[in-house]
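[job 4471] stage=fold_predict status=RUNNING
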Amino acid sequence: MEPINNLRQLLIEFLKDRYDSECQQVELFPKLIQHIHSLQLKNIIELCLDHAKRHIEKLEIIFTQLHSSSLGEICEGTLGLMSETDKFLTRIENPEVLDIAIITTIRELHSQDIAGYKAIMLYAHALGYYELAQNLYEMLQDEKNTGKLLKKVMRDTIMSHTSSNSYNEEELDLDINY
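[job 4471] inference complete, writing structure tokens
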């Protein structure tokens, strides 16, 4: 592992982290689709899979432009979430509860992606890599838009599961800005 001494090197390291995360997500999403019961959630996960594949392609172009390799450390955050998800898949028997657990995992992945792409976009802009920053902005928007869809599906699934009036939709608005 080489030392990181400047912003460009840091940018590349975080790009490698996002790249590995997206690759792990491409492996994870088809597995999740097999366990999902909600058609709406399946469609969103398929959208997530398409975005992850497209992000990998864009990141590979970025690495070429930076004359850098995409090979780096394993994204431990994504790996940990995948491990937790494997536990859910074997332990949760109620289909709606499993869908809620899967949504939660995907939202956590999107939180990591959003934070990562925001930071890298700032680094790119500071370094004068404006085209790169624009590509990262587009990936960030994909993540944010998908996050909004996941938020709605999570709220709807929880409302459906509770089927009591102990919660109202406003209480489950999950005031998170993504």
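[job 4471] summary: The mean pLDDT is 89.
[job 4471] exit 0
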